């Protein structure tokens, strides 16, 4: 149905006579759905989904029911936006933690290479990058293996 892309509420009062979405209406009617109401969930200028309510009988949703569904959908949209924001923030925080862990081990490996080869930080990183490419491993993994060998844990 079209409520999600448009953000509008769309009522299908009677699945048996619905002409806009004949295949969907026939499918729903065959499963004893008599009517439906779809209310878009707008979040920050975009509609990201819809609240779909189904009635067992035709004409199950009057004006009051539609109003209640639209008000509920507004609250649901806020909850959905908050959940999405939380998930996005948690993912970003984990990516930042991983980046900091990666940076630390890469800096340690660069220091080891600089000490052993008496080279610049840029040259040390270029060597780590070359080993990474030659062995098809991430720079972080190459660096971690080098640091582990240097401290005697022998991790590869």
What does this structure look like?
This protein has 156 residues and is of the alpha+beta class. It has 2 domains: 3-88, Beta-Lactamase, CATH 3.30.450.40; 94-150, Winged helix-like DNA-binding domain superfamily/Winged helix DNA-binding domain (Arc Repressor Mutant, subunit A), CATH 1.10.10. 61% of the residues lie in helices and 15% in strands. The chain contains 5 helices and 3 strands. A 3-stranded antiparallel beta sheet has the order 1-2-3. Helix 3 packs across helix 5 (139-150) and helix 4 (121-135) packs across helix 5. It is rod-shaped and about 80 Å long. The two termini are 54 Å apart. 18% of the residues are buried. The model has no long low-confidence stretch (mean pLDDT 90).
Fold topology:
Elements lengths: L2 H4 L2 E4 L9 H9 L4 E9 L2 E10 L7 H55 L3 H15 L3 H12 L6
Name the features:
156 residues; alpha+beta; Beta-Lactamase; Arc Repressor Mutant, subunit A; 2 domains; 3-stranded antiparallel sheet; 15% strand
Total number of strands = 3
CATH fold call of the largest domain:
Beta-Lactamase
The best one-word shape is rod-shaped
Amount of beta strand: 5-15%
Biggest sheet details: 3 strands, antiparallel
Poorly predicted spans? none
Count up the domains: 2
Based on helices, strands and strand pairing, what is the structural class?
alpha+beta
Rounded to the nearest angstrom, the distance between the terminal CA atoms is 54 Å
As laid out across the biggest beta sheet, the strand order is 1-2-3
SSE series: HEHEEHHH
| C-alpha Rg (nearest Å) | 29 Å
| Overall CATH architecture of the largest domain | 2-Layer Sandwich
């Amino acid at each position: 149905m079209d409520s999600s892309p448009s953000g509008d509420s769309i009522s299908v009062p009677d699945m048996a006579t619905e002409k806009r979405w004949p295949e969907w209406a026939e499918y729903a009617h065959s499963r004893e759905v008599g009517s439906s109401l779809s209310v878009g969930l707008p979040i920050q200028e975009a509609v990201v989904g819809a609240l779909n309510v189904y009635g067992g009988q035709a004409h199950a949703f009057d004006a009051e029911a539609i109003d209640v569904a639209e008000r509920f959908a507004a609250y649901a949209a806020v909850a959905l936006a908050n959940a999405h924001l939380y998930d996005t923030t948690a993912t970003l925080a984990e990516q930042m933690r991983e980046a900091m862990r990666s940076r630390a081990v890469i800096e340690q490996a660069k220091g080891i290479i600089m000490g052993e080869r008496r080279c610049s930080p840029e040259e040390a990183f270029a060597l780590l990058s070359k080993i990474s490419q030659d062995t098809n491993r991430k720079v972080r993994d190459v660096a971690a293996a080098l640091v582990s060998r240097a401290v005697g844990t022998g991790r590869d």
